[in-house]
Design a protein that fits this description.
mainly alpha, Serine Threonine Protein Phosphatase 5, Tetratricopeptide repeat, two-stranded antiparallel ribbon, disordered C terminus
């Protein structure tokens, strides 16, 4: 009967699957005890979506089981590019994206090796933390794409690493001390080297002079390839030029050549630029968030939303209230010049100094809470829509402050126009994002130049 179950999973025969369960309601439980494989491995391999749904709904524990080769169903589906299967499997929890299989590989590693670009995007969006997972040999997903010569998948990973502000991954070493730049140089992958250190690089802060356990920098690797009598390609000239422009040197020059040390001290502007590029406050904050537990992140989100709500409400209902229409003729305020208070303006605005202090501290709390929300939701799906919502709420906050405060109409118009331009720009970004999701507009960044 177990063989018939596996055959039904392979063919996607739901009727046969139901018949087998009617004959033996404990069939799936017995398979879990008696076989290394489970039917979910088979349906994931065959790309049978409907029967995968049935099996997951009845036996979700199957999604976390490894077969005799050390792979779970999501590993199998990722390697074979079955993105719908992956989405069904992730319904049991995004944590299965971090499930370690043979050689310490997570599903993203399997997709990266095979160059499954759509799967790579899906897994990174579902679980950005998978970008930081390494194999038993210390290899990230980017290492594996480069070693497997999957150029397009490598481009996508670099774009996602940049989007998520995880640039430090680009300098991570495997157990032999090799970075992505070492491997791409050894494979003479000028496209990837260009993405890392070229004139139109997507990456930032890549260390071109990292030394591996053999004492070789990427430039040493290139020189060895050229000196060992291997064929010379015109791309090698381009790679050599990129290394020169990036300041690449040989391993022995880093510690023994005084000219190298002198060059570093005589070019402070370049060092400052590289430092500014690699050191990023937003990245450091995101790293702090990533290192915290899920419970801590949830608590921070609750606090941030509460602060945003309270500070926003304080603007809508200031402590002193608002001037009413029937008092309009009798109230005047002396600031720089004497003027009449208008209905809708805050009573507190009659004392500009107190009003300014109140608005400043309120705005600090409001914008700081929005920044916390942005940090905590980084990498979430529908990120473009969330940005648009936050910007819209910010615009209404600013307009409310201007309307209730002692501000001249000309200043109101200037601020409203500026907020309108920001809102329009974010609306365009959101529309483009939607069009890309719907497949109406292609992602030009993903094309090789």
């Amino acid at each position: 009967m177990e063989s018939r179950l596996f055959e039904a999973a392979r063919c996607g025969d739901i009727s046969a699957f139901h018949s087998l369960l009617e004959e033996d309601p404990f069939l799936l439980d017995r398979v879990a005890l008696n076989s290394v494989y489970n039917p979910l491995h088979v349906s994931a391999l065959a790309g049978q979506v409907e029967i995968t749904k049935e099996i997951v709904s009845r036996k979700p524990a199957f999604t976390r089981e490894l077969n005799e080769n050390g792979f779970s169903p999501i590993h199998v589906a990722s390697a074979n590019g079955h993105i719908e299967i992956i989405r069904e499997l992730m319904r049991v929890g995004y944590d299965i994206c971090l499930l370690k299989g043979k050689d310490g590989k997570v599903p993203l590693h399997c997709a990266a090796i095979k160059g499954r670009v759509d799967v790579v995007k899906e897994l990174v969006w579902a679980c950005p933390e998978s970008l930081k997972q390494v194999t038993a040999c210390g290899e990230t997903a980017l290492h594996l794409t480069v070693k497997s010569n999957q150029i397009e998948a490598a481009r996508v990973l670099i774009e996602e690493i940049r989007r998520l502000q995880m640039m430090e991954i680009l300098n991570w070493k495997d157990t032999e001390g090799n970075t992505v730049l070492h491997h791409s140089t050894f494979n003479r992958q000028h496209e990837i080297i260009g993405l890392l250190i070229g004139g139109e690089a997507l990456a930032c802060g890549v260390n071109v002079n990292t030394v591996n356990t053999s004492g070789f920098t990427p430039k040493d690797v290139l020189d060895l390839l050229l000196q060992n009598g291997s064929d010379f390609y015109h791309h090698d000239i381009h790679i050599y030029q990129m290394f020169q422009q990036a300041g690449a040197v040989k391993g022995r020059e880093i510690t023994t050549d005084p000219a190298y040390v002198r060059t570093q001290t005589e070019n402070p502007n370049r060092q400052i630029a590289q430092s500014a590029c690699s050191w990023n406050l937003w990245k450091e904050l995101m790293r702090e968030v990533a290192e915290s537990s899920t419970d801590t992140q949830n608590a921070l989100m609750v606090v941030a939303v509460l602060i945003a709500t309270v500070t926003y409400q304080a603007v809508l209902s200031p402590p002193s209230g608002f001037w009413e229409a029937d008092k309009r003729k009798s109230q005047t305020v002396t600031t720089v010049q004497k003027r009449t208070m208008n209905p809708g303006e805050a009573v507190m605005a009659s004392d500009p100094e107190i009003f300014a202090v109140f608005i400043v501290f309120n705005a600090i709390g409001f914008f700081a809470s929005l920044a916390m929300i942005s940090l905590l939701t980084s990498g979430f799906p529908l990120r473009a829509g969330l940005r648009l919502a936050i910007l819209s709420m910010t615009a209404t906050y600013v307009i409310a402050v201007i309307y209730m405060g002692p501000t001249k109409m000309r200043e109101v118009y200037i601020v409203v126009i500026l907020m309108g331009l920001l809102f329009l720009a974010e609306s365009i970004r959101f529309t483009v994002w939607l069009l890309k999701k719907w497949g109406i507009v292609g992602d030009t960044r993903s094309r090789l130049r």
